[in-house]
Amino acid sequence: MTNIILMGPPGAGKGTQARHLVDQRNMVQLSTGDMLRDAQASGSEMGKKVATIMAEGKLVTDEVVIGLIREKMTAGADGGFIFDGFPRTLAQADALAALLDEMGQTLDAVIEMEVDDAALVARITGRSTCGGCGEVYHDETKPWAADGKCTNCGSTDVKRRADDNEDSLKTRLMEYYKKTSPLLGYYYAKGSLSTIDGLAAIDQVQGSIAGILDA
Ligand code: AP5
After folding, report:
1. How far is CA 181 from CA 3, 15, 35, 188, in A?
2. Nearest C-alpha to atom 48 of ligand 1 is from which residue?
3. CB of 99 closer than 8 Å to CB of 46
4. Are 28 and 81 in contact (CB under 8 A)?
5. DSSP element (H, E) containing 194
6. Positions marked active-site
7. Which pLDDT belongs to residue 74?
8. pTM for this entry
9. What count of other Cβ atoms lies within 10 Å of the Cβ of residue 183?
10. To which H or E segment does residue 196 belong?
11. Which atom of ligand 1 is nearest to the CA of 139?
């Protein structure tokens, strides 16, 4: 069992790589962003509360996201967990360490996907996802098939996120550099950090991650 964190700014490719690891290694993806979007779609009170915060690109409170992760981590995952978009603050990192400890599990790797900020605008503004299965697409680098059907599940439901615009991206980046990037030093000091080139092609990034997991 291997538990890993994928870290990187918005658009670094965390979700894209997490989905591949789920397919290839039977791992379980825990994306707090997806959990919060599901809460919004379900119309729950919590979902309504976080909608504006997320659309503006600000961070949701630690209490809410730690609660979401705690709910999903009641049982271990055979292939291990991929934490995608969590932790984003020191309080979240401490909570994750405590949860893993309670379950008698370890954090095996923290993988930083290093990207150039200038590339992120193009990645974010060109992104869409499949409403049927969550497959991630990009208008230029990974377009939908000519028949408009998802290559994974056949759905034609193209979704674009409310926070995928330049204004919100600026706030998301600011939040990342102020509150999340200090965690890189925290995990480096713990000896768990590896850094890879997130600007490489999707299959090359897959190869870099495999190299770390199989080392
Ligand atoms: P979240 O959903 O986590 O968004 P994010 O961190 O901003 O990351 P993204 O999903 O935008 O990017 P990604 O790195 O997954 O990139 P992707 O693979 O899609 O969070 C959203 C919001 O929820 C936050 O702003 C906050 O409000 C709240 N939130 C969530 N977690 C929280 C927490 N822990 N605490 C507090 N608040 C929280 O790729 C992007 C695009 O690039 C795609 O189109 C893809 O096809 C393309 N692409 C990917 N890789 C490559 C490549 N190698 N080459 C070319 N194109 C590529």
Report:
1. 20, 18, 22, 11
2. 13
3. no
4. yes
5. strand 193-197
6. 14, 88, 127, 161, 172
7. 82
8. 0.95
9. 20
10. strand 193-197
11. 44
For residue 160, count other CB atoms closer than 10 A to its CB: 11
Is residue 117 a contact partner of residue 9, using CB atoms and an 8 Å limit?
A: yes
> What's the pLDDT score for residue 145?
96
- How far apart CA 96 and CA 119 sit, in angstroms, is 30
* Amino acid at residue number 180: T
Give the angle subtended at the CA of 210 by the CAs of 208 and 215, to the nearest 5°: 100
Q: Is the CB of 52 under 6 A from ligand 1?
A: no
Distance 207 CA to ligand 1 centre (A): 20
Which pLDDT does position 149 carry in this prediction? 98
Which of 93, 90, 80, 87 is CA-nearest to residue 4?
80
Helix pair 166-175, 117-125: axis angle to 10 deg: 130
- Tens of pLDDT, residue by residue over 45-102, are 999 999 999 999 999 999 999 999 999 998 778 899 999 999 999 999 999 999 999 9
